[in-house]
Amino acid sequence: MNFLSHFYFDRHTTNCYHVLGTVLPDLLKNADKHVILRPEKLHPPNPDVNSIIAGWNKHLAVDKYFHSSEFFIFHSHELKKQLLPAITGSPVKPFFLGHIALELIIDNLLLTTGEVKVDDFYAHLAGCKTETIDEFLTFSGLADTAVFFKFYENFKKSKYLHTYAETHQISYALKRICMRVWKDPFTEQHESQMNEVLSSYRDYLLGGFMEIFDEIGSKL
Asked: Organism's domain of life (predicted)?
């Protein structure tokens, strides 16, 4: 699941460090895809750092239930099939595209139906102290935290998750993600055709997308 989908499960918490933990695995991956941390079983003395670890573990559980669900398997496959004609000539792997497209559409639906508020998400991030985050990262084994913080500060400043509410921006967000793996993933024609597919599939999911959140919530 993507950032806002993870936030959904803890949208009512008052602990900003727990919220940060629920999205930190993806933030780290975006900052540097080579960074691999395994803090799941660590027990540091700082309770705020422990809250980050609890959120991290929540992230892993949500992803496990989501990726093994019939909802994910069915809809990511359907999106892959529908997007395939739109990306003829693109180097992007169709399965990867279906997977990420589904997650972005779900985030869009959470925003546009009012299930989450993106400003609430960013407010939690703003409440976390840099030194506490740094303590978590170093305790987890990351020797050089500068690369992460450079990405993280830009992430907070840009607040680009607001654009997820605009359906026509889903293909752009998809392109940004694919550019981490492929240098020139899509042409303008690809993006235009993807927009049509994504917009149509977004409308198709609108009436029943919350079932996956209910399903995962019942297992947490």
From this structure: Bacteria
Residue given tokens 């793996």 in the structure block: 181
- CA atoms within 13 Å, Cβ hemisphere of 218: 7
d(CA 119, CA 116) in angstroms, rounded, equals 9
Q: Which two tokens stand for residue 49?
A: 């750092």
DSSP 8-state symbol, 17: H
pLDDT at 183 over 90: no
Closest CA to 33 of 169, 151, 209, 202: 151
Between CA 31 and CA 95 the distance in angstroms is: 23
Q: DSSP class of residue 92?
A: S
pLDDT at 174: 87
Measured CA to CA in angstroms, residue 207 lies from 40, 203, 204 at distances of 36, 8, 7
Distances (CA, A) of 175 to 37, 40, 87, 91, 122: 26, 31, 12, 12, 23
- H-helix segments, 9-129: 16-31, 47-67, 70-83, 94-112, 118-126
148-174 per-position pLDDT tens digit: 999 999 999 999 999 999 888 888 888
Find the domain containing 83 and state its range: 3-219
Give the chain's domain count: 1
Distance CA 220, CA 214 (A): 10
Q: Which sign, positive or negative, has the C-alpha torsion 11, 17, 18, 21?
A: positive
Specify the pTM.
Answer: 0.94
